[in-house]
């Protein structure tokens, strides 16, 4: 499994309420997901494990070179014009039933641990990292850094632990069923 913490280095991604940065949230969650999966015997590779800048093509090339069974890119969303009323969790896949199953398994577990976050659903997306990988891939948006409901949760270490557990459980459920 390849875990891809979105953004990094000078590209901090979205910046939310109180100055919380996407890169900080997603690196923390990604490192925890990696540890949880490794503790269950899953071979996991991270596209980055520190606050470094990594372009999109090398992320995809790593996953394709490793012939991973699944690729998961972890992000935190933001709305334009900082609309605090926009909140929720959504998971994207590019194509195929296996990509859909991976995204659905993760989305279901995320909603279980964050029931007050709106369900924005499992949706098709054309993001480079899920479009160009050769294996089932999902891009997870763990909530809106700019949202009134989600921002304080994403700033909380205990909530990020819950999200990490949920993502890992969703991946494990997918691996048991589809591989």
Could you provide a short overview of the structure?
This protein has six helices and six strands; from the N terminus they run βαβαββαβαβαα. It has helices spanning 22-39, 56-66, 97-113, 128-131, 150-154, 157-178; strands at residues 2-5, 45-46, 71-77, 89-93, 119-124, 137-144.
Write up this protein:
The chain is of the alpha/beta class and 179 residues long. It is 43% helix and 18% strand. The chain is built from 6 helices and 6 strands; from the N terminus they run E-H-E-H-E-E-H-E-H-E-H-H. Strands 2-1-3-6-4-5 form a 6-stranded mixed β-sheet, with helices on both faces. It is globular. The termini are close together. The mean pLDDT is 95.
Number of helices: 6
- Average pLDDT: 95
Order of helices and strands: EHEHEEHEHEHH
Beta-strand residue fraction: 15-25%
Structural class: alpha/beta
- Give the neighbour order of strands across the main sheet: 2-1-3-6-4-5
Rounded to an integer, what's the Rg over CA atoms? 15 Å
Largest sheet: 6 strands, mixed
Would you identify the regions where 5 or more consecutive residues have pLDDT less than 50?
none
C-alpha termini separation:
12 Å
Number of strands: 6
Overall shape: it is globular
Helix content: 40-55%
């Amino acid at each position: 499994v390849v875990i891809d913490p979105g953004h990094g280095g000078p590209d901090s991604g979205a910046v939310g309420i109180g100055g919380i940065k996407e890169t900080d949230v997603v690196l923390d969650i990604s490192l925890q997901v990696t540890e949880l999966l490794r503790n269950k015997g899953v071979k996991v590779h991270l596209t980055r494990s520190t606050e470094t800048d990594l372009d999109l093509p090398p992320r995809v090339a790593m996953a394709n070179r490793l012939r991973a069974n699944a690729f998961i890119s972890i992000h935190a969303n933001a709305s334009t014009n900082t609309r605090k009323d926009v909140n929720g969790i959504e998971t994207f896949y590019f194509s195929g039933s296996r990509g859909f199953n991976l995204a659905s398994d993760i989305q279901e577990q995320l909603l279980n641990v964050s029931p007050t976050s709106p369900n924005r659903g499992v949706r098709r997306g054309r993001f480079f990292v899920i479009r160009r990988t050769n294996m089932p891939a999902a891009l997870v948006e763990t909530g809106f850094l700019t949202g009134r409901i989600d921002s304080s949760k994403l700033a909380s270490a205990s909530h990020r632990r819950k999200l990490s557990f949920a993502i890992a459980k969703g991946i494990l459920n997918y691996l048991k069923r589809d591989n």
